[in-house]
Amino acid sequence: MTKPDTDHPRDFQSLPLQQPLLKNLQDLGYERLTEIQAAALPAIVAGKDVIGQAKTGSGKTVAFGLGVLHKLQAERFRVQALVLCPTRELADQVARELRKLARAIHNIKILTLCGGMPFGPQIGSLKHGAHIVVGTPGRIEDHLRKGNLDLGDVQTLVLDEADRMLDMGFQAVLDQIVAQLPPQRQTLLFSATYPKTIDALATRVLRDPVKVEVTTAHTESTIEQNFYRVENNEQRPAALHQLLASNDVSAAVVFCNTKKETDEAARALKSAGFAALALHGDMEQKDRDRTLALFANGSAAILVATDVAARGLDIEELPMVVNYHLSRDPEVHVHRVGRTGRAGQKGVALTLVSKKEIYKLERLEELMQQPITLQEIPPLPRGFAPARPLMSTLQIDGGKKQKVRAGDIVGALTGEGGIDGAQIGKIQLFDFSTFVAVERTVAKKALNKLASGKIKGRKFRARIVGV
Ligand code: ADP
Ligand code: MG
């Protein structure tokens, strides 16, 4: 993989694009390339596979849109490009932008195929044919399975907002779709974040990709470590409360050495009004799955966990970790702290240390090669009340074994009388149950929509399992 160099083109007219496309960009008032466009377009136009990582609003649609249109053969009325998006709203946005870009070329047909919309008209449109199909994975796969859609002539595959698609549980469906595409194709993958799961997807689906990454801030991660003095163990619950209150972050993991401490710390936080959950090895697997799902999808703000239990947690952005006790093993400490400050984000690591633990601190100083000073615990800020988490979780009593798929659930939640696709967060499928994050404010509405409708022609029981 290569990183972008610095002498990128800065204006569209210097790109080797077809004249009508360039003229249209001028008419649209697009002059200067955005950073991601400058970094990605040369490789895209050259026909290479590209992984593009950049924030929302950075102009990714124009980047892949120009790549798709540049090589499109208007006179060949076959589906030549497939663009997959996580939700209908995003697919509609992409289709709108593509139509603007395609105005320069005569008679380019762009068709959207999304879940939550009736099947019949889509089948009708497919009979009329299209050059470009934009859609959500579940519905595209449905059409493929039913033989309505032939992707044998696709030259460009675009995975837009790939991280969101994986968050929503579309991984298996994506693989099924990709299996039906010609191996000789260009694949463009765009994502705002780059967790391990995206890397795995990219390895399966892309060939020798050029990776371009545009991060506005510094890419070096910075972790701020602070150590706080506590007199004894009895003081820890209150100290934890004070620390979390004065470092008001959206999410934090509190590391404990034992199961007993985990329960103690979680209880203290809950009674102080925090959306906290305990996680330890003695819990049943299904309870652990639920706890991890609630934390990872933003329905719980604080996870209090032992080291072993926290291994199951795979999240890219964690603003803070707290060590309830300093670990006996300095390597473990470093590992815990490394959970925060990933992906170029700023992270905070706070550690409670009692007199009895000074010997551990000395070992850590040795490993870190720097002296550590202990600070006093900050007092509780006046009038502080913990914020409610943004998301809430619906647990559905149906999962992979019932052939429930993320797309089915998105379909069941959106549409007539339902919620907006943008209000749906992570969808995690297990064998017999599924956890769906939705914005807290629409959780009841989402539950009612599920209760009144069907998933895969069946009724499934569901409930809200927020904290
Ligand atoms: P992303 O997919 O990265 O979130 P979009 O592709 O939706 O971002 O682009 C965000 C907005 O920026 C859109 O309204 C688009 O029309 C506009 N835009 C994209 N590229 C340019 C450009 N080079 N100059 C001016 N506006 C642009
Ligand atoms: Mg986009």
Oligomer: single chain
Distance between the termini: 42 Å
Mean pLDDT: 90
| CATH architecture assignment of the largest domain | 3-Layer(aba) Sandwich
Number of strands: 18
Portion in helices: 25-40%
Query: Which CATH C-level class of the largest domain is it?
Result: Alpha Beta
Number of helices: 17
Low-confidence runs: 1-5
Shape: globular
Largest sheet: 7 strands, parallel
CATH superfamily of the largest domain, please?
P-loop containing nucleotide triphosphate hydrolases
Number of domains: 3
Q: Which sequence of strands runs across the widest sheet?
A: 3-4-2-5-6-1-7
Structural class: alpha/beta
Radius of gyration computed on alpha carbons = 25 Å
Strand percentage: 15-25%
CATH topology of the largest domain: Rossmann fold
GO cellular component, one term: cytosol
Motif (Q motif): 10-38
Organism: Microbulbifer donghaiensis
GO molecular function: ATP binding; hydrolase activity; nucleic acid binding; RNA helicase activity
Description:
This protein has 3 domains: 12-213, P-loop containing nucleotide triphosphate hydrolases (Rossmann fold); 223-375, P-loop containing nucleotide triphosphate hydrolases (Rossmann fold), CATH 3.40.50; 391-465, Alpha-Beta Plaits (2-Layer Sandwich). It is 36% helix and 19% strand. The chain has 17 helices and 18 strands. It has helices at 19-27, 35-45, 60-71, 88-102, 119-128, 137-145, 162-167, 171-178, 196-205, 236-246, 259-271, 285-296, 307-310, 330-337, 358-368, 406-413, 443-452, and strands spanning 50-54, 81-84, 110-113, 132-135, 156-159, 186-191, 210-214, 222-230, 252-256, 276-279, 302-306, 320-323, 346-354, 374-375, 391-396, 424-429, 434-439, 462-464. A 7-stranded parallel β-sheet has the order 3-4-2-5-6-1-7, with helices on both faces. Strands 10-11-9-12-13-8-14 form a 7-stranded parallel β-sheet, with helices on both faces. The protein has a 4-stranded antiparallel β-sheet with strand order 16-17-15-18, sandwiched between helices. Helix 2 packs parallel to helix 3 (60-71), helix 3 (60-71) packs across helix 4 (88-102) and helix 6 (137-145) crosses helix 8. The longest helix is centred in the N-terminal third of the chain and has 15 residues, at 88-102. Bound molecules: adenosine-5'-diphosphate (ADP) and magnesium ion (MG). Adenosine-5'-diphosphate binds at residues 30, 32-34, 37, 54, 56-62, 97. It holds the Pfam family DEAD. Residues 10-38 form the DEAD-box RNA helicase Q domain. Belongs to the DEAD box helicase family. This is ATP-independent RNA helicase DbpA.
